[in-house]
């Protein structure tokens, strides 16, 4: 009797607690499939989810668990999906990185991603296998604050945009071009997309520009008709922005409206006002803006290319003041953006991003400092990107499985070097630009504090150094410093340990360095890489492993390939 009542009590208590937090398991069923679509005014092929491009927006509350059953209907290639910005605490096998956290899901097979979205914020998801991001495999992932909790800023309404870039050449042909000898560079995208929509052969704002593009004749129901952001006058809106571009760095502005930046990569930042903001691939932001302009007009939202000489026209969306008709095109020209090579303004923007007081602060000293030299190199005549002279090649067995189960020969046993040999001149092309392939991992001591200095350098050509936005899986890091030229140990004395932004993506500027600090406290194997898809494809990344012995519950399906697949067969578990 007593036992019965005790368990009844526990049962009731569990019910009360779970309804108080109201965390839900959200079940989603996805089919990933190629589909004919016109992201701009030319038809191409996109990777769609449940017949949608971009994929469906996931909306959840902090603390919810997503249970996502994904079937690969691509027929001729594998697929994985990465949940960008979700740290996968306790579920490293759900991170969606082929060869790192799991085996690519074979054609016709299914996989269940089950993970907790533990923190409110603006995120997105995208393919992390081959060049599937370039093929359009992405969508928004928005996590609201938990029930009864409040954001640290107020707004009346919310809007959301996902930025991307689009090529008329298919992603698989692009992959072949990049892997050819000599490499055939993919070139600049034909079109920039806002929520999957852009215009290539016509211009929405033709009458404002001196370009030869014809004005678009749109009915509004075309797949490439501009995205309409509907607003009411005299309200404050939260605009969520994320960039899943394969290549382009972007600058975003809303004509006649100022923006107040309040969130970056799922973390609060010290609010500041900007006329335009830079958005690198892998970044996400929330900005607030006030609809304080004349309500009888509409306004442009534009995204332009940053950091590469643009051959791609701006992407335009329409800020539609209700009850004005959305077909009533803005009467003012699209907002002006800084010149593509105006790096001082890009740096000023990045330096302005600081954490909101009360945010987690970094440990004062690191246990280890890696200095990762980013170089463009050759291997047997193939063009590659290398880190400390090693171009990352992913193994056939996912690291998470091979490390957890101590399988030897699954990848290079030797770890890559913590720093490049001294004496490298980052301002000049390398005298010997040859490097080697490698699949070794950096093994980080569990719970240790790690600094990574990302050192940019001159590329293969004279006077060329590019922007690289680096993204870390499984963690956020503090962006503790930026500098010009070569990083010197003494530069660490100038790191910002007071209010550095806490993020998952940080940019390195041409010929500069960026320093990040994080705590290796999430058992798993994590990619850290340039978020420019062709750069990653050419080897621009590293792999961190930490506390893998603590990882529990890797589903067999995550590692049923390569040497771990053989292990499972031997054990009779598959
Ligand atoms: Cu890059």
Automatic annotation (TrEMBL):
Domain Plastocyanin-like as annotated: residue spans: 32-144, 160-321, 425-547
GO cellular-component term (any): plasmodesma
Leader sequence segment: 1-22
One function term, GO molecular function aspect: copper ion binding
Domain of life, source organism: Eukaryota
Enzyme Commission number: 1.10.3.3
Subunit structure comment from the entry: Dimer.
Name used for this protein in its record: L-ascorbate oxidase
Lineage, uppermost ranks: Eukaryota, Viridiplantae, Streptophyta, Embryophyta, Tracheophyta
């Amino acid at each position: 009797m007593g036992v019965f009542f005790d368990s009844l009590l526990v049962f009731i208590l569990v019910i009360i607690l779970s309804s108080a937090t109201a965390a839900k398991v959200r079940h989603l069923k996805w089919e990933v499939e190629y589909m004919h679509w016109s992201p701009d005014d030319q038809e191409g092929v996109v990777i769609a989810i449940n017949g949608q491009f971009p994929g469906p927006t996931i909306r959840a509350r902090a603390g919810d668990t997503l249970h996502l059953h994904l079937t690969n209907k691509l027929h001729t290639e594998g697929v994985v999906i990465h949940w960008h910005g979700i740290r996968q605490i306790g579920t490293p096998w759900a991170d969606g990185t082929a060869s790192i956290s799991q085996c690519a899901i074979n054609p016709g097979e299914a996989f269940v991603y089950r993970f907790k979205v533990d923190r409110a914020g603006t995120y997105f998801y995208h393919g992390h296998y081959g060049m599937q991001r370039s093929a359009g495999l992405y969508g928004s992932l928005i996590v609201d604050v938990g029930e009864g909790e409040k954001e640290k800023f107020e707004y009346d309404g919310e809007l959301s945009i996902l930025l991307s870039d689009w090529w008329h050449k298919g992603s698989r042909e692009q992959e072949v071009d990049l892997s050819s000898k000599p490499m055939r560079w993919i070139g600049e995208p034909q079109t920039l997309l806002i929520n999957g929509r852009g215009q290539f052969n016509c211009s929405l704002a033709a009458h404002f520009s001196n370009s030869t593009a014809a004005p678009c004749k749109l009915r509004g129901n075309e797949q490439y008709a501009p995205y309409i952001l509907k607003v009411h006058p005299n309200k404050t809106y939260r605009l969520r922005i994320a960039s899943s571009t394969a290549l382009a760095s972007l600058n975003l502005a809303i004509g006649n409206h100022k923006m107040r930046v309040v969130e970056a990569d799922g973390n609060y930042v010290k609010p500041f006002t900007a006329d335009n903001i830079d958005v690198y691939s892998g970044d996400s932001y929330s900005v607030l803006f006030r609809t304080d302009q004349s309500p009888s007009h509409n306004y442009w939202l534009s995204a332009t290319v940053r950091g590469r000489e643009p051959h791609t026209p701006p992407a335009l969306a329409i800020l539609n003041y209700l009850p004005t008709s959305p077909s009533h095109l803005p009467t003012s020209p699209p907002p002006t953006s800084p010149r593509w090579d105006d790096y001082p303004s890009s740096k000023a923007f990045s330096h302005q991003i600081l954490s909101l007081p009360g945010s987690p602060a970094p440990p004062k000293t690191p246990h280890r400092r890696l200095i990762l030299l980013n170089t463009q190199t050759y291997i047997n005549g193939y063009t590659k990107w290398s880190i400390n002279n090693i171009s990352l090649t992913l193994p056939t067995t996912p690291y998470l499985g091979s490390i957890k189960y101590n399988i030897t020969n699954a990848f290079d046993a030797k770890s890559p070097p913590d720093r490049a040999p001294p004496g490298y001149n980052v301002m000049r092309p390398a005298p010997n630009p040859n490097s080697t392939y490698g699949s070794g991992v950096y093994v980080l001591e569990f719970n240790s504090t790690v600094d990574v200095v990302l050192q940019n350098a001159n590329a293969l050509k004279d006077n060329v150094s590019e922007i690289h936005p680096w993204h870390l899986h499984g963690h956020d890091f503090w962006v503790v410093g930026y500098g010009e030229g070569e990083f010197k140990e003494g530069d660490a004395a100038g790191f910002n340990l007071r209010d550095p932004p806490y993020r998952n993506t940080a940019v390195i500027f041409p010929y500069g360095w960026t320093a990040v600090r994080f705590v290796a406290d999430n058992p798993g194997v994590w990619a850290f890489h340039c978020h420019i898809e062709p750069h990653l494809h050419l080897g621009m990344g590293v792999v961190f492993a930490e506390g893998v012995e603590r990882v529990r519950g890797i589903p067999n399906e995550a590692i049923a390939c390569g040497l771990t697949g053989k292990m499972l067969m031997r054990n009779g578990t598959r």
